[in-house]
Amino acid sequence: MARVERPSVPRVLKERPKLRVLVSGASGFIGTELVRQLEVDGHTVHKLVRSKPTGDSEYHWAPASRMIDYGVLESVDAVINLSGASTGRIPWTPGYKREILESRISATQTLTQAMAMAAAPPSVFLNASAVGFYGDRPAERLTEASKKGEGFLPDLVDAWESAAHLAPEKTRVVTFRTGLVVGRGGAFTPLIPLTNLGFGSRFGTGGQHWPWISLHDEAAAIRHLLTSSLSGPVNLTGPTPATSDRVTSYLARALHRWYNLVIPDRVISGFLGDAGRELLLLSEKVLPDRLVADGFVHEHRTVEQAIDAMLRN
Fold it and tell me: CATH number of the domain at 20-312, out of 3.30.2310.20, 3.40.50.720, 3.10.310.20, 2.60.40.2470?
């Protein structure tokens, strides 16, 4: 039988679309890395700023007063909201707890209200959230299907995510629940210098799980969610759970410093109150099930790899 020649068909690689993305909190710890990665991907990044805009890509807003030009929302494909007062500021006085809550709700609702007023609202809204939703759950495997915990942070996250879902019906909403971000900022701002000085410490028993993710993977996961079909809550954590002792002891080892101190639970609770209990002593074994099932591949699969990458930068 004669061989039939078939015309060669060039292999076409499907490229991800280049989007116009509006980011709030773009100058922060996570936002700076996210913007860098978005621009490397070829996306056009616009920023919401509270000060006077310094270029054509910046737009002024005042979320505490619900002020924003809703027309901005008609010129972008996606919105990423990273705004909110830091939970790392200690102590959590009643007044500061209100500020933590109100800063998140006001920023989120300012955006969702502006989307509702826009004739052509963005198709994607990625809103920051936190693994604090789950509360203290020692030894329990926590996924996006797990129920809300008890405490200030679970109540905060529940209200925050509810505000995000006020976006227009046709806008895909993702609330990405972030854990401890391993990078030169955030919780590691005090941890690195204290450890360098020889004050690396175990917090309480050290057996509590700290949900972690590298700074690179945090930004990469948010980028992934831009073009994913996922909606609702998505855990942004590393794939290998780690205890707090594993985090702090390896940091000391990587910095070639002593690791002999222990700060008892009662001291942390006594001096830091709710902030100490909910930030340092809670155990949350949070897994990124939906993110991994959607095809995301972590660059840093263990907390040791994440810490090594942080110290190289």
Answer: 3.40.50.720
Distance CA 37, CA 25 (A): 15
Nearest by Cα to 76 from 148, 6, 21: 21
4 pLDDT higher than 50? no
Work out the burial of residue 297: count CB atoms within 10 Å of its CB; fewer than 13 is exposed, 13-18 middle, 19 or more buried. exposed
Q: Give residue 313's pLDDT.
A: 87
In Å, what is the CA distance from 170 to each residue of 115, 119, 124? 11, 12, 9
Say what the pLDDT of residue 16 is.
Answer: 67
Residue 15 confidence class, pLDDT cut points 50, 70, 90: low
CA neighbours closer than 13 Å in the CB half-sphere of residue 4: 1
* Beta strand 20-24 pairing with 44-49: parallel
Q: What is the chain's length?
A: 313
Break the chain into its structural domains and give their ranges: 20-312
Q: What is the pLDDT of residue 143?
A: 98
Please report, in angstroms and rounded to a whole number, the separation of the first and last CA atoms in the chain.
Answer: 63
260: Cβ contacts below 8 Å, ≥ 6 apart: none
